[in-house]
C-alpha cells in the first residue's frame, strides 16, 4: 500500500469514528457508498477500529447497523491542513470582532493550531489572515436584503481566494441585472453578517467589491494572479462604495 493510500485510509478512519458517534444508525452499505469504497473495505476498517479499542457495536443481520458508543470521547482531534486553516482563520475573525462570549480559550486553541504547522505553512496562513478584513456591522437595510449564498458558490470563492486564482462569476446587482465577470479575489471583507469579495474586475479593469450572496455561480478559471496591496483598494473600500 502506497503512502497516498495509507493517508487516505487514516483519514477515512477518522471520519468514520466521528460519523459513527454522531449518527444513530449507519449501515456498512451506506458507509461504503458515502466513502466511495467497497463494503469489504469498510468491514476491514471497522475491524481495525475495534482492534484499536473503539467500542463499535453492530446489529446482526443483513440490514443491521453499526454505531460507536456515545459515551466514548475522542481524545484528540485530527484535522487536515485546509480544515486547520479554516478553523484558525475563523478564530481570528471571532477575536477581531471582539465578541465577549466564548473567547476565553480561543488563544490556547490558536496557539496549538499554529504550533502544528511547519514554518512555511505558518507564513502562508499569516498571509491569508492578512487578506481577511473586518469592517462595520452591515446596515439593517443590507441585512434584510441578504440571502445565504449557495454552498457551491461559497466553496468556489473560498478555494479561489486561498489558491489565489481568478474566478468567473455570474453576479446579480441590486437592480437584479445579471452580468458575467472574471474577478481576482484579493481580499475578503466581513461587514457582519455580510461577506464581500474585494477584487479586480476584468470586465471593468478596476477594483470592485462584490456581495457574496449576490454571486449566483462561480467557477475557477485555473489562472493565478499577483496580489495587490490593500492600499490599491482603499477608495473602493470606502463604505459609500460598497454594494448594498
TrEMBL record:
Domain HTH deoR-type: from-to ranges: 9-67
InterPro entries: CBASS_pafABC_assoc_protein, DeoR_HTH, HTH_11, WH-like_DNA-bd_sf, WH_DNA-bd_sf, WYL_dom
Gene3D superfamilies, alphabetized: Winged helix-like DNA-binding domain superfamily/Winged helix DNA-binding domain (1.10.10.10)
GO function term, MF aspect, one: DNA-binding transcription factor activity
Signal peptide: none
Keyword ATP-binding part of the UniProt annotation: no
Keyword Transcription regulation: yes
Keywords of this entry: Transcription, Transcription regulation
Superkingdom to which the source organism belongs: Bacteria
Pfam families, per the entry: HTH_11 (PF08279), WYL (PF13280)
Family matches, as SMART domains: HTH_DEOR
Designated name of the protein: HTH domain protein
Upper classification of the organism: Bacteria, Pseudomonadati, Pseudomonadota, Alphaproteobacteria, Rhodobacterales
Amino acid at each position: 500500500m502506497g503512502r497516498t493510500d495509507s493517508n487516505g485510509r487514516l483519514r477515512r478512519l477518522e471520519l468514520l469514528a466521528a460519523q459513527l458517534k454522531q449518527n444513530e444508525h449507519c449501515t456498512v452499505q451506506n458507509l461504503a457508498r458515502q466513502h466511495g469504497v467497497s463494503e469489504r473495505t469498510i468491514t476491514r476498517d471497522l475491524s481495525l477500529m475495534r482492534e484499536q479499542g473503539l467500542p463499535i457495536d453492530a446489529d446482526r443481520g443483513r440490514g443491521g447497523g453499526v454505531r460507536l458508543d456515545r459515551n466514548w470521547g475522542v481524545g484528540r482531534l485530527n484535522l487536515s491542513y485546509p480544515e486547520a486553516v479554516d478553523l484558525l482563520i475563523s478564530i481570528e475573525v471571532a477575536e477581531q470582532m471582539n465578541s465577549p462570549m466564548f473567547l476565553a480559550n480561543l488563544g490556547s486553541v490558536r496557539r496549538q493550531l499554529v504550533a502544528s504547522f511547519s514554518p512555511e505553512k505558518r507564513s502562508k496562513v499569516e498571509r491569508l489572515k492578512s487578506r481577511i478584513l473586518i469592517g462595520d456591522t452591515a446596515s439593517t437595510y443590507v441585512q434584510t436584503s441578504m440571502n445565504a449564498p449557495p454552498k457551491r458558490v461559497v466553496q468556489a470563492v473560498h478555494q479561489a481566494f486561498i489558491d489565489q486564482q481568478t474566478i468567473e462569476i455570474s453576479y446579480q446587482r441590486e437592480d437584479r441585472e445579471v452580468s458575467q465577470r472574471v474577478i481576482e479575489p484579493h481580499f475578503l471583507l466581513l461587514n457582519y453578517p455580510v461577506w464581500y469579495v474585494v477584487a479586480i474586475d476584468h470586465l471593468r479593469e478596476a477594483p470592485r467589491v462584490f456581495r457574496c450572496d449576490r454571486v449566483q455561480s462561480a467557477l475557477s478559471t485555473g489562472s493565478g494572479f499577483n496580489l495587490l496591496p490593500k492600499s490599491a483598494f482603499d477608495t473602493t473600500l470606502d463604505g459609500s462604495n460598497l454594494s448594498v
